[in-house]
Amino acid sequence: MNPSRWFIVALGAVFVFGELVLGISLFRIQVLNVAESRESQAIQTIRRVRVPGMRGRILDRNGRVLAECRPSRCIQCNLEEFQRRGAASNTVAAVDAAIDDLSRALGIQRQTSPREIERHLQTASAIPLVVWQDLDESTFARFCERSHEFPGFADHVSAERTYPFGTLAAHVLGYTGRGDPEGFENDPVYFSEKEMKGRDGVESYYNRFLSGVTGEKRVRVDARGFRPTRARQNLMDDAGDGDVAPANGLDLTLTLDIRIQASLERELEGVTGAGVVLDPRDGAVLALASAPTFNPNECVPTLTHAVYASLTNAPAKRGQNRAISEGYAPGSTFKPITALAGLATAWMPEDEYNCQGVYRLGDLRLHCWDRYGHGSLNLSEAIEQSCNSFFCNLGTAVGSNAVITAARSFGLGSRTGIDIGGEYSGVVPDDEWKFRWYNEHWYPGDTCQMCIGQGMLLVTPLQMAVVAATLANGGRVYRPYLYARKEGAHTASVVRRIPYEADAIELVRKSMKAVVDTGTGRAILVRTETEDGRRRRFRLKVDCAGKTGTAEIGRGETKRKNTWIIAFAPYEQPTVAIAMLVERGESGGKTVAPRVHKVLASIFGEEEVTGIRPAAHYYEGRD
Amino acid sequence: MIATFLSKIKRTDWVLTVCMTCLIAIGTAFIWSAGSARQIAAIQNIWHVHAYTAAFGFIVYFALASIDYRKLLDFAAIPAYAGALVLLVAVLKFGAEVYGGRRWLWFFQPSELAKIAVIVFIAYLAGREGRRSFKWFLATGAAFAVPALLILTEPDLGTALVLAPAVMVMLFVARVWTKGLVALLLVALLAAGLVLGTVYVAERQNDEARKEQLYSRLPLREHQIKRLRVFLFPERDLRGAGYNQHQALISIGSGSVWGKGLRKGELKALGYLPQSVSMNDFIFAVVAEESGFMGNLLLLTLYLGVLLPSLRIAFKSTDERGRLIATGVATLIFCHVYINIAMSIGLMPITGLPLPFISAGRTFLIVVMASLGLVQSVAVHNEEIAET
User: Of A202, A305, A588, B379, whose Cβ has the fewest other Cβ atoms within 10 Å?
Assistant: First the structure.
């Protein structure tokens, strides 16, 4: 064999060897290191999209639906169908023109601006853009019939929050808005639609509970970041490996009773004020209202600037939950606490004080509301008649610390811990506090002011409801709560017991009963109606106890009165405790007591009575 | 006459024909697959063009197989060579500029034609007297160098790179100045090593000025230096110069053992593997993604099924010119296959070379089929010599 033949054989060997090298390399890449390539591929082609679960409903204690999701009919645009060559603005223009066409064809206003299209293209081109939401049924039906004429657009039904009772319990429920989920802003491979999110009230406090567990869907994207068009998708296997189905949110059953809530709101209509009804046996919130109020349906799907302004503008501040977030001087409704402070230290139940219409302390002169004086009265009578001089004297006698301790033992000056946000702690002032804020030390006059619920003392209506509930149940301070957990896992939690003897508490309760029977709060128990010149009287079917309060604030022109009632019923075994406040009222007995009567009547009923005449001590309208 | 034609066709190497046909069929299928990712109908239908070209190629293939290559050499070698030179000059002057090079004249690439013209011309020269002389060697060298320089000017480094080994192998087979050739080979390898080494050293420099200085000494264009850099440091520029190769590697790797199925390759369909190269220089990535390692083994086997029969024909050929044509063509095809696949998997720097039979490209498909037709002619007519 000649050398060139040898060379040809060698050449054949080189060819085989060369292909062997390629084969081995391919084996390494395609068999040994597959995982590496697969991972690189997934990183660049797979995008995770968040899929929210259906938001849970909110129910009252009897299962009435206060908030739920309704279908919202949407049209969405699959941007990948409108891809244009060149600059991104070409694609924006194409989508924009298509939306214009569709809006003409359906006769509806556009909801999406070119800016939004551009933003969506930049940040979320892999998921469809919702171009119309919440369409009415007939427009939506017209679109669905003709959708084949509008390639690139698709019908889509999403969920929207709705509040069937409108304004009812608005401040408790709050509302939902839509926003980007938090914590994923910097993760470009994690897309999401705007997700429903609680903004206030229990919607916000129990947001995680209501919104369920967000799932995850995987979509493929092409080199330009778009979802492949349907034609291309059909070529490929499903990208769905690793999808996680979302878990729907849970239903939230509240302790509210919508009958009580509705009657409370009815009584607050037209005034500025707030009211809270608690179950004194465990702190459950039966009703909580603030007026003026708002309709949470105005706030969904998104809160517009106009609506936001109308919620926050002074003086109405419709969005503010006055029941928990505003501090007021409690006025005379504070006196039961002063009384307990007295009884616990030096004051005996039978100790008397002679009210002469004015209380003098050094240069200070404090007038009692009865300028001729109540005369000589004991503690029980002083509560019944709400004598200012008596309590100024008592407070001066026992000292400010006893009163401050008493107030704090009821939970005043700190948040009650109710399960909605925005609660104000209120103020129970002391020497240190005063010095910090006013750069002045505590004067005996401050003690006097505090004993009659005035001065620097600030409480929320909810706190006063807790005070009423605590007096009602004999001294247990409960944390008020809105979320009624299942039987057995009871949430009732006693925060503390007030450190007073049962006898003392019983004395105060008895005095509070006298307030409604014969004292300043008679209108809580009995409603008088004049019909054809004939007076008819309606009495609650149960006995109750309460305390009126009228706090004077401001001076001169801005002088006004905030009027209060705290009450509980039935007297023997209370199941309801209530606190109600009306701003700029006349007096607790005149302005608030009839309203509280109606709320209690809606719970316990009332009956017409005859033969009750105004008692000798008839202080209606005064405290 | 037809009887003679048929009897000649009967004597061709059938393994070669079958393997070549299979490769063309595979190529058509994957051009169809690569085109399906595009929206333009003309590109989606490029596979038709490939099929038509192949049909025409078969006519050329069998026609050349039935013609005595020795007569053809005497008759056509000089005109073909001269024509190729004219076209190479014409393309530099009138060619359309595509991707920074002038390679296209009307509908074909003259540099592809030049490949076969050079091989044929050198085989023709080998048949002339005095070929052991150094003068003959210089003449052969010039016959290669002139078109090679024209091709380099286009620039088409790839074509020059595959033509050089083919010519060198032919000279080895002709046993002309073997020692000199070995020396030349060593010098070429040394030069390649030096260039690569310089790029490596330059890239390890932190000093920009020094880097510039090193690069200025290399006789390479900027994009060529970039390709060498990507080859040496693939992870440095995955979004720029290294993008295609990186995506090709992901495509190939994600194909795994059995592939994703015809038309189901995602990187190609989603445009990560650029559509401009997916049916040409990087079509191997599409094949590998969709047919997997097993498909690639079949592909490599089919290529051996073309290459080894060609070498067998050369081995059996009693005629020197026939032997030269067969080895030259086989080497040319091998270089194309090896460089293209090695480039796709990162074993070699990026070079724009088509994968024979698979890549879309009319000129090259016809040229390769015609070359193999000549090889078959060698097979057919050598036996004739043996008979007479």
Answer: A305
Q: Is the pLDDT of residue B105 over 80?
A: no
Percent of chain A at pLDDT > 70 equals: 93
Instruction: Look at residue A218 and tell me whether its pLDDT is greater than 60.
Output: yes
User: Which one of B249, B256, B303 has the shortest CB-CB distance to A19?
Assistant: B303
Instruction: Identify the three-state secondary structure at position A572.
Output: coil
Q: Return the number of CB contacts < 8 Å for A and B.
A: 129
Residue B200 lies in a domain: yes
pLDDT tens digit string along B35-57? 887 777 888 889 999 999 999 99
Chain B interface includes A362 (CB < 8 A) = no
Instruction: Give mean pLDDT, residues A319-333.
Output: 93
Token match 């020692």: residue? B179
Q: Residues of A with CB below 8 A from B288's CB? A: 26, 30
Nearest to B252 among A12, A29, A223 (CB): A29
Per-residue pLDDT, B386: 52
Which residues of B fall within a CB distance of 8 Å from A224?
A: 271
Which pLDDT score, from 0 to 100, does residue A622 have?
54
Between positions 231 and 250 of A, the ones with CB within 8 A of B are 232, 235-237
Q: Is residue B137 part of a domain?
A: no
- Smallest Cβ–Cβ distance between A37 and the set B254, B308, B311 belongs to B254
> Are residues B304 and A19, on separate chains, in Cβ contact within 8 Å?
yes
Strand pairing of A190-191 and A46-51? Answer: parallel
In a domain, B148, yes or no: no
Residue A376 has pLDDT above 80, yes or no: yes
Q: Kindly indicate the confidence band of residue B388, based on its pLDDT and cuts at 50, 70 and 90.
A: very low
What pLDDT is stored for residue A168 in this prediction?
93
Q: What is the mean pLDDT of chain A?
A: 87
CB A155 within 8 A of CB A74: yes
Residue A155 has pLDDT above 50, yes or no: yes
pLDDT tens digits, one per residue of A243-294: 888 889 999 999 999 999 999 999 999 999 999 999 999 899 999 999 899 9
Is the Cβ pair B173, A221 closer than 8 Å? no
Q: What is the average per-residue pLDDT within A45-74?
A: 89
- Is A33 an interface residue toward B (CB < 8 Å)? yes
Q: Is there a domain that residue B358 lies in? A: yes
Tens digits of per-residue pLDDT, A98-148? 999 999 988 888 888 889 898 888 888 888 888 998 889 999 999 988 888
Count up the domains in chain B and report the number: 1
Residue contact B264–A7, C-beta within 8 A = no
Among the partner-chain residues B323, B337, B345, the one whose CB lies closest to the CB of A26 is: B345
For chain A, list the domains and their CATH numbers: 47-253 (3.90.1310.10), 258-609 (3.40.710.10)
The 3-class secondary structure across B159-221, one letter per residue, is HHHHHHHHHHHHHHHHCCCHHHHHHHHHHHHHHHHHHHHHHHHHHHCCCHHHHHHHHHCCCCC
Q: Do B315 and A9 touch (CB under 8 A)?
A: yes
Chain A: nearest CA to B132, how far in angstroms? 14
Give me the phi and psi of A372, to 5 degrees please.
Answer: -90, -5
Which of A6, A14, A22 to mutate to test binding with chain B, by most B CBs within 10 Å of its CB?
A: A22
Q: Do the beta carbons of residue B314 and residue B372 sit within 8 Å? A: no
Residue A87 above 90 pLDDT?
no
Q: Which of A1, A15, A27 to mutate against chain B (most B CBs within 10 Å)? A: A15
Question: Which residue range is the domain that position B265 belongs to?
Answer: 11-75+155-382
For residues A516 and A255, what is the distance between their CA atoms, to the nearest angstrom?
A: 28
Helix ranges (H only) for chain B are 2-10, 14-35, 41-44, 46-66, 69-94, 110-126, 134-153, 157-174, 178-204, 208-216, 222-232, 243-255, 266-269, 283-316, 320-344, 362-387
